[in-house]
Amino acid sequence: MENMKTETVHNITLPKIGFGTARLGGLILPFRWRDAAYLSALRSAIELGYTHFDTAELYALGHSEELIGRALRELGVKRESVLITSKVFSNHLRHPSILRACERSLRHLGMDYIDLYLIHWPNTSVPLSETFRALNQLVREGKIRHIGLSNFNVAQLKEAQSLSETPILTDQVPYSIRDRTYVHNGLVEYCQQNDILVTAYTPIGHRRLPNPPALQSIAQARRVTLHQLALAWLVNQPRVITIPMSFNPQHQKENLAAADIALSESEMESLYNMA
Fold it and tell me: Dmax of the chain from CA atoms?
């Protein structure tokens, strides 16, 4: 059976389940007085075996990036043993702004390259060609290894593909048992057919799950939580990875273990038909 725990595209292997950090470090502004709790959450994630950390310059104005870099250094984690995703925000998509934003993120992380650098949101007021002139330059300079997107629809993704000198690695979109928006608009299928990873964010819908009998009965039969089942439904799909977030070490452990749950076709179908 194909390895359920990872996805490999374009010579890079990513874990099916990574660690999201959208609320780590603060909300819009940094909550530095909570750093001990944030670092504790990161330490437990690292010690449990998470190797993909997803962040963005927008998260707590870069403080999320700072905390990830600090936690990895404090635990003596080798840079090459982890994958770091960060994102440039939509108001920094002009050529000089992207170069500056990337330098800032590298400085916050305390690293000399980012594995995967995403456009956080499309910005129709900036030509994508200008944005990609900067992104392609950053790849050539070795500051980023791979380019990805977030919240792009199929037409926008195709335009990005035509402008990128290297393969677009992922499109990060909201996707869960509850939220099929990017299934209905064709994005998930397009990515699966074109060797692009779908990175599902809010995979549990902010920890609010539908609770129909089908979900309950499969979870009980398999002795897993509803949240684990929701994550397993995502990662049992080809070319889909996800980045749940939790401060709770037990939930972190359960989230990571969801990659081991191999669902049958009939289970996948009954879960698919719930929404």
Answer: 55
Long-range CB contacts (< 8 A, 24+ apart) of 184-189?
185/153, 185/154, 186/154, 187/152, 187/153, 187/154, 187/157, 188/237, 188/240
List, for residues 67-107, the tens digit of each pLDDT value: 999 999 999 999 999 999 999 999 999 999 999 999 999 99
Q: What is the domain range of residue 242?
A: 6-207+237-248
**CA dihedral of 232, 24, 146, 165, whole degrees rounded to 10:** 110
SS3 245: coil
Active site residue 190: no
Evaluate whether residue 90 is within a structural domain.
yes
Number of domains in the chain: 1
**Over residues 198-227, mean pLDDT:** 86
Domain presence at residue 144 = yes
Q: Which helix (H) or strand (E) holds 146?
A: strand 144-150
Q: Domain holding 158: CATH number?
A: 3.20.20.100
Is 53 a domain residue?
yes
Say if 38 falls within a structural domain: yes
Q: Which of 50, 59, 175, 201 is catalytic?
A: 59
The CB density around residue 216, as the number of other CB atoms within 10 Å, is 12
